[in-house]
């Protein structure tokens, strides 16, 4: 599956990750956002996390790969298509450390009922890099307006 991930894919908006100095982190983020748009089950996405990795979305928290997989499956129940596009990525520490990041982005969704929607999000991301250069996510917290999904399909009057 990762063979389909282009080196410069559209899921990382032009130059969003360019400021990151670590090429392994840039590659990891391209892969992460590409796979985050793939529906579960997607072991390749959950394997991007450490064994005890944490994924938080609003008031929902999952720890460990199996729990992350279960939460993602539940969240995909109403939203069969999504497209996450990071717009800006900031190093959250000293300039040479790309392992703690703040990410700003947009997402568009398509619901089973046929409605589309879009919104902004931010994320706090902590990465771990092994001696072999392999990058994994140990913490990912998504900050967004969850009420946007409750508004789907409602017409403005």
């Amino acid at each position: 599956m990762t063979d389909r991930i282009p080196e410069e894919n559209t899921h990382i908006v032009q130059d969003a990750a360019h400021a990151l100095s670590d090429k392994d982190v840039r590659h990891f983020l391209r892969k992460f956002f590409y796979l985050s748009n793939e529906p579960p089950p997607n072991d390749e996405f959950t394997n991007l996390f450490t064994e005890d990795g944490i994924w938080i979305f609003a008031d929902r928290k999952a720890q460990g790969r199996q729990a992350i997989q279960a939460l993602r499956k539940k969240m995909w129940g109403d939203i069969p298509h999504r497209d996450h596009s990071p717009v800006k990525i900031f190093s959250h520490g000293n300039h040479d450390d790309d392992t703690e990041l703040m990410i700003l982005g947009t997402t568009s969704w398509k619901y089973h009922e046929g409605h589309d929607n879009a919104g902004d999000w931010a994320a706090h991301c902590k990465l771990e890099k092994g001696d072999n250069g392999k990058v994994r996510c140990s913490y990912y917290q998504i900050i967004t307006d969850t009420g946007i999904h409750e508004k789907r399909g409602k017409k403005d009057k």
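DSSP finds four helices and six strands in the chain. Residues 1-6, 152-157 have pLDDT under 50 and may be disordered.
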